[in-house]
Write a structure and sequence with these properties.
single chain, 8 strands, Spore Coat Polysaccharide Biosynthesis Protein SpsA, Chain A, 312 residues, 16% strand, 12 helices
């Protein structure tokens, strides 16, 4: 069975980190697809550059932009291409900023060995449902405020201050080499309640023929984590040994990036250390790609005044 990973992409500042981990796992992943889902020219150019540097691994998948759909609403359409009956898929947010060395191998193996759950979910640092179990296991102090076992919990999903402290606590463990204790936690979920889809895996055959794939805009997260597993009577499960860190939900992002720019910098440094030695590392520069790609990108995304934006 093939294993294809996908990412709605994306923002360069995060993709630089995620791509490093994906490249490290080319022995696990057959190919990775970037679902082009941004209107920012420099981010689009960076995605194309990554793909052209690693054409045997990365692939850009683009669909014409529908002005009636939001960027988030546009993502659902890409799932139409993820229904191969002999393939398992995994979807990662573009701001997955850390994964353990064995996370993808564990996720793939668990998915292929456990075919009954509709989704296999990652064990995610900075995901409210996971934070609830991490706190009950003693990894997150209760003095920071109690996290509820709800997807959009006021503390675990909304609070930038909580996320900032959580990342600092987790990064300390990563830098000390003690991050495995986060993998030893069973994540409490009934499998049909909403779960943030920062890292998920499904079997292509389970989406094949799904009527909702013919609809252009489906709210991806509640449909995949609540409605569909309940309808199919196949509750989702969490693979605790597939450990990832997720940078921020949108209510948290501004606070974290303004108050602690060191967090993403530390994750970036860790991602580079595990891929190639510093002496062999080459920066991923945009170079001429904004010029070479502007026509094709504009055709797909309706990017206006490309030259003006490029000059700015």
């Amino acid at each position: 069975m093939k294993f294809i990973t996908v990412t709605p992409a994306g923002r360069r500042r995060y993709l630089e980190v995620l791509a490093a981990y994906l490249l490290r796992n080319r022995d696990i992943i057959d190919e990775h697809h970037w679902w082009l889902n941004t209107r920012v020219p420099k981010d689009i150019a960076f995605i194309h550059q990554l793909t052209d540097r690693y054409p045997d691994f990365f692939r850009v998948v683009a669909k014409p932009m529908d002005p009636k759909l939001s960027l988030a609403g546009s993502i659902w359409r890409y799932l139409r291409d993820c229904t191969d009956e002999d393939t398992s898929y995994a979807r990662f947010d573009d701001d997955i900023c850390y994964m353990t060395d064995d996370a993808l191998a564990n996720l793939r193996r668990f998915r292929e060995e456990n075919t009954e759950p509709f989704l296999v979910l990652g064990n995610i640092v900075n995901n409210a449902v996971c934070s609830y179990s991490h706190q009950r296991a003693g990894l997150i102090p209760t003095s920071w405020d109690a996290v509820g076992n709800e997807c959009m919990d006021e503390v675990g999903w909304r609070s930038g201050a909580f996320a900032r402290r959580l990342h600092h606590r987790f990064l300390r463990d990563v830098e000390r080499g003690t991050q495995s204790r986060w993998q030893n936690v069973a994540i409490e979920t009934d499998g049909t309640s909403r779960f943030s889809i920062n890292a998920i895996s499904w079997l292509g055959r389970d989406l094949c023929g799904l009527p909702e794939l013919e609809i252009d805009e489906v709210e991806e997260e509640p449909f995949l984590t609540e409605e569909l597993p309940a309808r199919l009577q196949r509750p989702n499960v969490v693979c605790s040994t597939a450990l990832f860190s997720h940078f921020a939900f949108y209510p948290q992002r501004h606070y974290i990036e303004r108050a602690s720019p060191d967090i993403l910098a530390r994750y970036r440094a860790i991602s580079r250390e595990v891929v190639v030695p510093r002496r062999k590392r080459r920066p991923l520069l945009l170079g001429p790609y904004e010029h070479l790609r502007r026509g094709s990108v504009a055709a797909f995304y309706g990017v206006r005044d490309w030259n003006r934006r490029r000059a700015a």
